[in-house]
Amino acid sequence: KLIVSDLLVHDNKELSSFYGFEQLEHVGGALSIVGNSLLGHLDGLAKLSSIGKGIQLDDNVALQQFDALVNISKVSERVSITRNGKIRNLKGLGGLANAGTQGLFIEGNALLRTDEGLNRLVGAGKQLVFRKNSQLKHIKNLQLLQHVEELRIEDNLELEAVDGFPMLQVLDRLYLHYNKSLVTVAGFPKVTLIDAIEVEGNKNMQTLNGFPFLKVATSLHLEANQTLSEVRFKKLDTVSTFDIIDSMAFTSFKGFLPLKNIKVLKICNTGLSQLSVENFVKSRHDPKPTLKFCD
């Protein structure tokens, strides 16, 4: 019923199931299942109710589901679901409320289409990462998430929408990079203070309006979002550095009307004219920030 330390199952070319582990209830260390080329499910672990350190499911190319882990509510270190060729959802994390100090990493799962299964997650430690899940369409099931230091959503080629963080209050950094199908970002109504927002290379993004009550941002960086035309931060008051680069559809500051305090504003290759920027700065800021224009 109990394994005191780690359960490591690595590189077993003939392993196809965990039958024989039906009585296992507790793993004191980490559960690490890596590189088992015939493993299609974890059904033999259905009684497992606690894991001490973390969960690692990596490089199991035949793995279709891991629903047997649904009774795990927390780990102390991290959860990694990476490069599992056939999983389509995250229902196996359906009981997880706390992903540990290091966080939750969902990366390189070629057939993953939904974040279904993350609906009970409250805390994700240092990082919550969605990266290179080529068929992931939406991120919308993190309704209970309250705190994570860094949210990274990168290189998910089919991702269309990021929404549904109604309880998230503590978020230090948000990175949205090279999600080529991403159109809209919304759903961060409780975030009022953030260190950095970086939105880059999302060529089909049209709107960025998910922070209706954000007041202070240390850094705001928008780059190479060719169709981004609507950016709304209606409560934003203070920004230390604000970069708008290679975003020709961006033509107006009307979504930033309350903005009063800004130190450095950098404008490069946008739909804004130098005159429109200077007028905005003159009428909205005291003291006047440093303006940087690219040739």
Question: In words, what does this structure look like?
Answer:
- This protein is mainly beta and 295 residues long.
- The chain contains one helix and 21 strands.
Low-confidence regions: none
Spatial arrangement of strands, main beta sheet: 2-4-6-7-8-9-11-13-15-17-19-20-21
Shape: elongated
Q: Structural class, please?
A: mainly beta
The arrangement of helices and strands along the chain is EEEEEEEEEEEEEEEEEEEEHE
Strand count:
21
What's the tally of helices?
Answer: 1
Span between N and C termini? 68 Å
What helical percentage do the residues reach? Answer: under 10%
Q: Proportion of β residues?
A: 25-35%
Compute the average pLDDT: 93
Ordered list of secondary-structure elements with their pairings:
Elements: E1 2-3, E2 7-10, E3 26-27, E4 31-34, E5 50-51, E6 54-58, E7 78-82, E8 103-107, E9 127-131, E10 138-139, E11 147-154, E12 161-162, E13 170-177, E14 184-185, E15 193-200, E16 207-208, E17 216-223, E18 230-231, E19 238-247, E20 261-270, H1 274-284, E21 290-293
Parallel strand pairs: 1-3, 2-4, 3-5, 4-6, 6-7, 7-8, 8-9, 9-11, 10-12, 11-13, 12-14, 13-15, 14-16, 15-17, 16-18, 17-19, 19-20, 20-21
